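Page header: ASSEMBLY MODEL / two components / 339 residues total.
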Amino acid sequence: MRTFVDLHLKPGAPSEVASILETAEILGFSGVAISNTGDSRGARKGIDVISRIDLKPRNQRDLTSSLKRVRRRYEIVSVECASKPIARQAAKDHRVDILNFSQSASNRRKVGFDHQEASLASGANCAYEVNACDILGKGPLALSRLLPILRREVENARRYDVPVVLSSGASDPLLMRGPRDLAALMGLIYKEVDWLDAVSTNPWKIVERNREKLSTGFVVPGVKVV
Amino acid sequence: MVYRMRRRRRYLWIAVRGDTSFAYNDVAEAIQRSLLNLFGVEGLSLAEPKLIDFDEGVQSGILRCNHLRLENVRASLAHVTSIEGSTAAIHVINVSGTIKALKKKTTPPNQPS
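Prediction written out in full:
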């Protein structure tokens, strides 16, 4: 049986965390990652809470210094790629788990998940994230501009075997959706992708890999002090 | 003798969440409008959505649709972010092929009377 995880929840205030966790449980998620929370590992309210940080670096140097500082403290490290140099640096850095891009279609046309980015991400084992909140509630015209861009990005990810992670990106419980509803909504972008894997298998693989790395006694993959 | 194939349907248990309570007509219209926006007139007519029961007290109900268009209906429900100008979300709690099985699957607190 599949277990689902929403890797991107960003509550506006700490008081909203409880209601977000409650909604996630009702919607059938077994795990959630809450952005920019401290070390919140372990089960709470029957849900596995995963710690995540969204880095918004100003330049490449800022990115590498931030990664050095936070990598051992968070289970998921995501980078919001605001410019091409940052995107390239993030895609080739093994410490980055997830690449995130701008919500707006015009910015995404300039800095998006193109061929070169996908090729670098494939080598560094980075995942490409699609946030459902980017398309939720958008009108037909706005969707018609954004969907082709997302479609191209997903095609690039598939071509280079980059794992695709589907998250809600919700800042409010009313923006959260069930895993099967998210997968159905993403059918608008690309029908050939198994979107249920993107909300279950792919994110869990990242979490398990990083938990192993963060565990005591880990040396390198396959070597552990017992 | 003419044999007609029986139309297969899917029944979805939906829960509406929002800042205020919504009436049957508002919810039904929001669902239809979302289907129309995403899939056009053809998509709406093929999906045949019908809100057959909606309890305004607990804000949940049963939506019927064509079984071949279930994914489109799910996508349209997920795409709803406001109803009658108020922020709202429509969550699918359960899906089944018959109303009887749907009611059996769904736990009592979420059931409309």
